[in-house]
Amino acid sequence: MTSAGQVGPLELLVIQPTPFCNLDCSYCYLPDRSNKRKMTLETLEKTFNWVFSSGLVRQPFTLLWHAGEPMVLPASFYEQATLALERCNVSAFEVTQSFQTNATLVNDAWCEFIRRRSVQVGVSVDGPDFLNDRHRVTRKGGGTLENVLRGMRMLRDHHIPFDVITVLTSTSLDYPDELFDFYIEHAVTSVAFNVEEIEGPHVTSSLSGSGIEPRFRRFYSRFMDLALASDPPLRVREFDSAYNSISHHQQPDTRTQECRPFAILNVDYEGNFSTYSPELLGLTSPRHGSFALGNVARDTLESVLAIPRFVVLDDEIRRGVDMCQETCRYFPFCGGGPPGNKFFENGDFATTETLSCRLHKKATFDVALDKLEKMKAVM
Amino acid sequence: MAEGSGWRAPHNDELANLTLTKPGSDPACCCLFSVPVHMRNRFWAMLNEEAAKGTGDFDEFSEDLANFLTFKELPPPKDSVSELLIQSPDGKVETGDVWALINFGEEPVLLTWPQLQLRLGPGEP
Prior knowledge:
The complex is a heterodimer.
Chain A (H helix, E strand, L loop, with lengths): L11 E4 L25 H13 L7 E5 L9 H14 L6 E7 L6 H9 L3 E5 L4 H7 L9 H13 L5 E6 L7 H10 L4 E6 L16 H18 L5 E2 H12 L15 E4 L4 E4 L8 E2 L3 E2 L3 E2 L5 H6 L1 H20 L3 H4 L4 H8 L8 H24 L1
Parallel strand pairs in A: 1-2, 1-8, 2-3, 3-4, 4-5, 5-6, 6-7
Antiparallel strand pairs in A: 8-9, 9-12, 10-11
Chain B lengths: L1 E2 L2 E2 L4 H7 L18 H17 L4 H14 L37 E5 L2 E5 L5
Antiparallel strand pairs in B: 1-2, 3-4
Helix pairs in contact in B: 2-3
């Protein structure tokens, strides 16, 4: 049986203080995003107590407020949360708080809180209106870009740095120059590209059609040419990640956060928790049951590690990573495909390649390698 | 739109996806893309550099522009050359025998043929 000392250490704590989101993006994987219930301060305190008494905290970690839209709760909730975090963190481990937000609700109170508490901010925006407003829409179907830009302006006016996450769809692949223009116009200095994935209730992706991979590579190559030539260079998470992998050559047995049990802990508004890929929380499978493994109010880490649901899940995910290691030449630079993607696309964790692997890992890695080789050749 | 082995007119929703339609814009105006702002900025920087130091590299700029057009699946014909035409906004544009014309100015340009008038906004090819 796996013991508490064999899992973790915790690197990422994802708390979903409410499932509700004020937007209704067409590619969203959240099944419960109309539910307006929220986490109570009592549940929050129990969550932090559970985390710090679990033995998982052995190094600094990031606390990510995510999914639904965290800013539908007032900044005062997070002020209380920060105080609770400080009370429970008796060994004073370094905890970096981070928000992934659509930025439509940013106001002065938020900016004041973010600055005072040194919170990191990631803004979700998909580029100019003809791209962003195609998928990132209100509950009435209206575009959201105008409000997002207002939020981004407010963050900038308060001198709050932020990263941008853009979800790439099939349409986006025709517009690298337009996306680049958008980031420059809005003073974005760091961008991450996610691909439209098949996850949870979002059962199809515009990127799963034939002919997508060459288009994706072409898009990414052109975008990286622009990003690397800009002054200062526009930072791209996927390129930085590939560069680091190439420079430091990860050991083949290094597994990604998502593939290691309890390196990520995901907690929902009721205190239910899961590990591995965050998007698994709140979903069930006929074979695995609920991916929520326990609740902070009643289950210890040791008890959860012993339940058959975890044992089966852990075994399948380990086998899936082993298969990646045996069959994929990118494994030393990847560490194993995301279990959530494997499950939603292939129906089983003990599998290998997914859409995310092909585009988000392999294509971006190949393009980065190509750019680095060309840069080396001219040096 | 390609459908099977033939072609058909786009449906309204497809046309909306293909064209840039903004409130107040001319509904007859169809703009598939513009030359991106970063490239227009580079064009003016190249001209300024030429004026200040005589080192503006039009050939290099033209090559980058060709790369952009190639990405948009409109590669310039092999062995084609790029020419820079400077004129006042209200002057007559002599299109001649050109493969493409791009308005790098800051004002719209009106192109006139016997059966057709075409208004090129800034950055529009």
